[in-house]
Design brief:
Organism: Pseudochrobactrum asaccharolyticum
Keywords: Membrane, Transmembrane, Transmembrane helix
InterPro entries: DUF475
Structural class: mainly alpha
Oligomer: single chain
Helix content: over 70%
Protein name: DUF475 domain-containing protein
Radius of gyration: 22 Å
Distance between the termini: 44 Å
Pfam family, one: DUF475
């Protein structure tokens, strides 16, 4: 999986994504006809599914870059497991089961009742999901913030895109726990602005997000140690697999909640976001197999800057509404700029190499 496959075209990586798109949109159109019985209703649901897919892709492109960064160091066996089991968990777990669990916990009802509520009273279902946005944003935002800060506060990081900011952060990484301190300061600041009740909920949810990140890191370290001492490569792969699953869940929180602004139908949301998730999987495979991250040195930086901004946006969404389209476009623009900066760097390196050859020939 980690070896380059230059014979494959870019479009070939998206074959299954195209198939899922056709099936998903057809299913969305059928669902629109079944629920409304009109051509207009069918077209409306079809359009919403398409918009949700585009929204999910724009929100999760940075997720694909980070996934590829982690996957390239995993064994082929665990790469395959993440790209098969992982997509099942991503589509069915986060896009269907997660919204149901939120309603089950928030409304104090059983899973069957939650499904009936989603089918018969979508407005009430959407209201419960929206009311749960604050703790979800605090949890997911905190986890993503730790992911981004851990990347930048790294004393071993020697490639810097925005040097004036990244070099000091790399030096400050010598201070143990600086990322945790920054996150706790932000949690306390936002919780004090929100007020007593909402602030307490935000603080506790954020702390749970922090503890989840630390627990995954510790577990991954234990499994990696077990891999070295017991020579069990699969155990180390499981640590990375678990990290990627929690990371994908954190990316999905905001998209799932935001999707209810476009549709209150759980099944329409699952179709649209599921299509988008397949494209994220295809992009991940392409990035790993083509070695794109090593070829474009700043692409990874752009992804982590996008994660950093997304985490802060999730915090601010507890105070003011920020459209998910803006968040998605912001991340896409950052990665695009990072790609452009990488291309410019490669061209400069090639020009210097040519100059060196010319001087040597003279």
């Amino acid at each position: 999986m980690s070896t380059s496959t230059p014979h494959k075209t870019v479009l070939s990586y998206f074959t299954w994504s195209f198939i899922v798109t056709v099936v998903g949109l057809a299913l969305g159109a059928w669902l629109g006809w079944q629920t409304t019985g009109t051509i207009g209703g069918m077209a409306s649901i079809f359009f919403i599914c398409a918009v949700l897919a585009v929204l999910e892709i724009s929100l999760s492109f940075d997720n694909a870059v980070v996934n590829a960064n982690k996957l390239k160091d995993m064994t082929p066996e665990w790469q395959h497991r993440f790209l098969t089991w992982g997509i099942i968990i991503a589509v069915f777990g986060m896009r269907i089961i997660f919204p149901l669990l939120v309603v089950v916990i928030a409304a104090g009802i059983g899973p069957i009742e939650a499904i009936v509520l989603a089918a018969s009273k979508p407005e009430e279902y959407a209201r419960i999901m929206t009311d749960a946005h604050l703790p979800i944003a605090a949890f997911g935002g905190t986890f993503l913030l730790m992911v981004a800060l851990t990347y930048f506060f790294n004393s071993d990081k020697d490639v810097h895109w925005f040097g004036p900011l990244e070099r000091p952060m790399a030096r400050l990484a010598e201070i143990k726990g600086i990322e945790v301190a920054i996150v706790l300061i932000l949690l306390l600041t936002f919780s004090s602005v929100l007020g007593e009740v909402e602030g307490t909920t935000f603080l506790y949810s954020g702390i749970y997000g922090l503890l989840t990140f630390l627990a995954v890191e510790v577990l991954g370290g234990i499994l990696d140690a077990s891999q070295k001492t017991l020579n069990a490569a699969a155990q180390g792969g499981f640590g990375a697999f678990l990290y990627l699953e929690v990371l994908d869940a954190s990316f999905s929180f905001d998209g799932v909640i935001g999707a209810f602004a476009l549709s209150q139908n759980l099944f329409v949301i699952a179709i649209g976001l599921g299509i988008g998730a397949m494209y994220v999987r295809s992009m991940t495979i392409m990035l790993v197999e083509k070695g794109t991250l090593s070829e474009y040195r700043y692409l990874e930086h752009g992804a982590f800057y996008a994660i950093l901004i997304l985490s802060v946006v999730m915090y601010f969404q507890t105070l003011v509404h920020i459209p998910e389209v803006i968040t998605g476009l912001g991340g896409a623009v950052l990665i695009g700029v990072a790609f452009w900066a990488s291309v410019r760097h490669n061209r400069r390196e090639e020009a210097h190499a040519e100059e060196g050859k010319t001087v040597a020939a003279e």
